[in-house]
Predict the 3D structure of the following.
Amino acid sequence: MKKILTICLIIANVVVLSLLTYGYISLNNEQKVYKVAFWPHQRQMSISGFEINYDKNYSGGLFVQHHFKIEGKIKGEIYGYKGRKPYIKGVQISEKLVGEPGQEKVYMDIYPIIEMINEEDYNIENTPFEYTFTHTLNAYKWSENTYVINCLGKEQTIIMVNQK
């Protein structure tokens, strides 16, 4: 009886450890999405193009507003389902300031927000999309302000000068 109990405990430990190891490996395989959900359409999106346009002649100053607009364009494909056509509803933008004082950069992540609409004639296929958005950035210091903008692996860096 003790042998059977010992063998069962060893098997249970092996199973639990393998599940934990699998979970650990899966959690470290980071995949960024707007919102985690049951349907995988967010993960089945591919980005083929990402472009940020802005006024390259911007020069903030002491008596000038310290913010400016950027316009972004995202191109790619979204995988849909029979009768459920995907589309880009908007984007979520997060900004974080990283670095030592005087050497900071703003890192921005842009996540397209995917929604589905019911469309009986829609078959399972990749649906191409092109989505344009605007966003206002704020200067965070005098002199050069660096923004590293990432959209699902596509990255662009812009530098704006804010003069005294």
